[in-house]
Amino acid sequence: MNKLATMMIISGMAALAASCQYAPKGEEPAFKYTIDSFADLKVMRYQIPGWENLSLQQKEYAYYLAEAAKYGRDILWDQNCKDNLRVRHAVEAILEADGMDTQTPEYQDFLVYAKRLFFSNGMHHHYAEDKFFPACSQEYFASLLEAAGVQDEGLLDIIYNPSIYPQRRSTETSGDLVQLSAVNFYEGVTREEVENYYNKMVDKNDPTPISYGLNTKVVKGADGKVYELPWKIGGIYSPALEKICEQLAKAREVAENDIQKKALGLLIDYYNTGDLKLWDAFNIEWVKDTIGTVDFINGFIEDYNDPLGRKASWEGYVNIKDFEASKRTEILSANAQWFEDNSPVDPRFKKKTVKGISAKVINAVCLAGDSYPSTPIGINLPNADWIRKEHGSKSVTIANITHTYDLAAQEMPTSTLREFAYNKKEVELAQKWGTLADEIHTDLHECLGHGSGQLLPGVSTTAMGEYASALEEARADLFGLYYTADPKMVELGIMPDPEAYKAEYANYIRNGLMVQFTRVELGRPNTEAHMQNRKLIAEWCYEKGAKDKVIVKKVKNGKTYFVVNDYVKLRALFAELLSEIQRIKSEGDYEAGKALIEKYAVNIDPQLHKEVLERYKALNLKPYGGFVNPEIRPVYNADGVITDYEPVYTDDYLGQMLLYGKKYGTL
Ligand code: ZN
């Protein structure tokens, strides 16, 4: 289902509700995206647009890849902290025990702890890394353990004692980060011992180095020496990896093409041997597969959780290409020269021949390991630099996850949009076109913006110094803003309506002048490059357009608003600033770049900043979101033959967590 269809279902809700008694049993009048919320978290569910267009074989391929992904769950739990699985098993036993009085406030506190534990894949906040604690008393928790027949054996101390495992990856500025971190990547060794170990091993002259230490735990042996224990079949995590390989082998049987088959074969060999050369070989094949519809991530991928940035957390992802959305970037890319030739910048700074980038847009089918329930909305892999340089990389944006965030926000009683938009008309404009116009602006920014323009001969690529990132982001954003409103976009069939761009313009100004400051602490300057770029553009246009009232500041009930009054003139201002920033970059005019950033991008009006933070706080929004997966179920005919696989959308977060614990529990 594409996005427009989804929105039609929502607006068609009233009509359906009226005839609901005739609807088939169990059919819901509208799809609800947010299914649970607690602490600082909310849980959503996503749909899989395009699933129904897959062939039976593609569905089967995706199904086995998803099974393989889910079997890795326990690996991540154990990697995050070696006592995580013990705690989870105890919590699962309590949740499944009969005869508990679940209506008491104390039990509800326990329930919140359980949900947070599942969300974070362990005892530490998924984002902040700090250990969190149950709000119910330790005595009460002890009574639950007893009622569920679970022996304490130090569990309560692990859960309640703040000095045991205080942080997953330590953020201390002094001390030994390896020993202070709760992650289960090292045991009995100091940071110095680990560093010495790898310094001896790493060959700095190897042009194609393996990712040393990516898939091992470092320990000290009885002989006092440092050893690596591999995560492989026959080593650590063997029961989980065996299950993963079993499912990957089934997937391989029904893969879409020979590249996928070869890649899966290498991945299975790698899990069997732990040989990192095979991991590289797998990645090289994986990058080559750009023709398949179904794609996946499965392995020890990102090293963010390791204080030394070497050990990778287990992650799984299954996705299908969004042909409709990918078509957009393909069209832009094919017309790259037209956009370059018609841009408002000085012809001297334009590229004679320009090549667009066509990024792939995908829809998630299954999130797993480090991507579940909290997931990124864009992915760029593999991580090895030399593979990226020699063989390329895959860069994707995940459309159904982004859409779910937007649609779930619309379900909430409060939203930043409704708080900061001046009136109903502005809200409706954003609800009608906001998501799509924003995606199209991002496509223009990524596919064409960064690649446009050229430096004059002799100008250094590093001429803009510390202002380079913010100015470069501003240049790409302005290129996108200018063209979002161009009639060419409607002509190419990318923009559905000549008015749709207004949603992006209003949103951009509102965000650049106000909303984004919700992410900056009061009294602090605006320092992040993308946020600086947005403030620079919005402030510059506000000031330069003041005499024509292009953007007007309004105050209603003591609250400040910024309203776009003249969209045509605003577009002309975007063109003017694009032209100037391109000149600055092309000529290497460091002083002019510095002056723009310092005047418009850094300092936040303290009065306005305070107001924005207060208004945001009052909305009481959950800052972090995560997702449950649709269950992909085989459909059998009367002879017991599988005729289809269909996604079933659960609305039971805890239910999915308990199901996964039972079905995919391996360690
Ligand atoms: Zn960018």
Write the layout of secondary structure elements.
Elements (H helix, E strand, L loop, with lengths): L2 H9 L1 H6 L15 E5 L2 E5 L10 H15 L2 H8 L3 H13 L8 H16 L17 H10 L7 H6 L16 H4 L5 E2 L3 H11 L14 E5 L5 E5 L7 H16 L4 H16 L2 H13 L5 E9 L10 E9 L1 H12 L1 H6 L18 E10 L8 E4 L3 H7 L2 E5 H13 L4 H5 L3 H26 L18 H17 L2 H5 L9 H13 L15 H16 L6 E6 L2 E6 L2 H21 L2 H12 L4 H14 L4 E5 L2 E6 L5 E7 L4 H11 L4
Parallel strand pairs: 2-13, 3-4, 8-10
Antiparallel strand pairs: 1-2, 4-5, 6-7, 7-8, 9-10, 11-12, 14-15
The protein binds zinc ion.
Bound molecules: zinc ion
How many individual β-strands?
15
What overall geometry do the principal axes of the alpha carbons give? globular
Radius of gyration: 27 Å
pLDDT averaged over residues: 92
Q: How far is the first residue's CA from the last residue's CA?
A: 38 Å
Helix content: 40-55%
Could you walk me through the main structural features you see in this protein, from its secondary elements to its overall organization?
The protein has a 5-stranded mixed sheet with strand order 6-7-8-10-9. Strands 1-2-13 form a 3-stranded mixed sheet. Strands 3-4-5 form a 3-stranded mixed sheet, with helices on one face. The longest helix is centred in the middle third of the chain and has 26 residues, at 424-449. The two termini are 38 Å apart. The chain is of the alpha+beta class. Helix content is 48%, strand content 13%. Bound molecules: zinc ion. Zinc ion binds next to helix 20. Zinc ion (ZN) binds at residues 445, 450, 473, 476.
